[in-house]
Structures are given as C-alpha cells and as structure tokens.
User: Fold this.
Amino acid sequence: MSAVRLDLRPMDLGEILDRTFRLYRAHFMTFFLIMLAVQAISFLGSLTCQASLAPLQPSPGTALHLPGMSFFVALFFSTIVTFLAAQVGIGTLTTAVSSIYLGEPIGIGEALRRVRPSLGRLLGTTLLTSLIIVLGMVACVVPGFYFLLSYLLVSQVVVIEGLGPQAAMRRSSELMRKKSDKGLFRNNIMKASVILIIVFVLAAAAGMIVGLPFGIAQILTADRTHPPSLLGPMHLLQSTLTMIVQAGVAPIGTIAMILFYYDIRIRKEGFDLQMLASALGVEPVPPVHT
Assistant:
C-alpha cells in the first residue's frame, strides 16, 4: 500500500491516459460489473418503453398511431430509475477507482457501502448542475459549455471530499481554474477537454463496431412490407451487445477524470505529501495554494 501511495506524483496528459488504461486493465472486471448493472437497468427501462410502443407500430396500409398514456408513464419511470441507477454506479465506481489508486483495492460491495452516505448529496448535486448546464445551453450555448467544464469534477468532489451541492460546485470550479502543467495543457479546461474528446471517440468507435454489422444485415434483409419489430430478435441482440460494450467502455472516462482530479490536487495542494505524511504517521504540512 505504501509503495502505491509513494507513486503519487504530478502527471502530464500522456501519463494520465497511460495510468488510466493500466488501472482499467488491471481491475477490468470490477469496473465492468459496476457499469453493467447501470447499463442493464437502463436497458430494461428502454425495453419497457419500446414494449409500450410496439402495439402502435403501423402495418402496411394503416395509419401511424400516436403514443398513449402508457408510453409516457413508462418513459417517466424508466428515466427516474435510470438516473438513480446512474448516480449509484458513478458513486460506486468513483469510490472503487479512488481506493485502488490510493493503494487500497476494494470490492464492489465495499465500494457501494462506502458511497451510500454520499448518494443524497450526489443526486442533489447532479440535478442542480444539470439544470444550470441546460439553462446555459438554452440561453446561448457557450455558457452551457462553460458550466459543463467548470462542474466537471463535482462527482469526484462529492464522493471523495464529502461536500454538498453548492460547496462541490464551488470546489470543482476552483480546481478547474487552477493552472497546471506547461505549454498547451497549462489550462486544466484544455486538458480536460482533450480527455473528454478521447473518451468520446473511444465510445463512438465501440458503438460503431457493434452497430455496423447489424446495419449491414438490416439493409440486406430489409422487407418494406413488414417493418422490423422494436422487440424483434435482431433488435434485442443488437441492444444487448451495445449495452455490454458500453459497460466495458464507460469506466475509462471515470478513471481518467479521477486521475485528473488527483493530479490537480497533487500539483497545487500537495496531496501526495499529505498522503505520505499520513502513511508515516506524522502531521502533514499545510499545502501552499498557488
């Protein structure tokens, strides 16, 4: 444990990504199962909505039917359940990754137990920041992106530091404004943007790899007289494989942002020295903020 803690040090962007993938490979099954549970709940919610739409699919020569109340009820409850599951998953994954990075590998059950007291704060913070980001996007788009990047670390701050919604938002903005590294990536917002772009490209590529064969198969076997069923075997197989792939790719972004969060604290708050002092049982020196 001490050896891992002693390895805490400032990292450039390449080192953050390298360590991200090393952690991902070393603990793949733990991270995958956490996100698979979240994706499975989202998948079941989507199936429920699709099942409520299935009777409305037009057959040849018939008019299109509008969704009924059952669809909107299913959509409302599936959205709520998916959102709650996502927050539990993010909190559990953040706890697991943080503990592993700091030299204390834990299982899924222990990570869930540790994050449970923070779930209320995490839910409130996510709702508040999402509302502000959406309002910023509606207002002029640019403010929305600014808020999105400013509040990028709120989940890590809530789970790791135990702060409430408003304090976590201020803390995230403070961390993102700090200057670190050199050259182009001296600005944390620029570094975070590159990480997000890389994660997005990986997720898009994974989705394309799964979707392309099914798209080709649908084109080759298209029957315009009988539209494909929303709950047909081909659609269900594609949705299931997509869910599994998304669960495999999703942890990468979370791991990268946690390492990015710790890198800022190491550079600007002496977090590595605080951890070393704690491991040696001495009083840590107060960090010098720059």
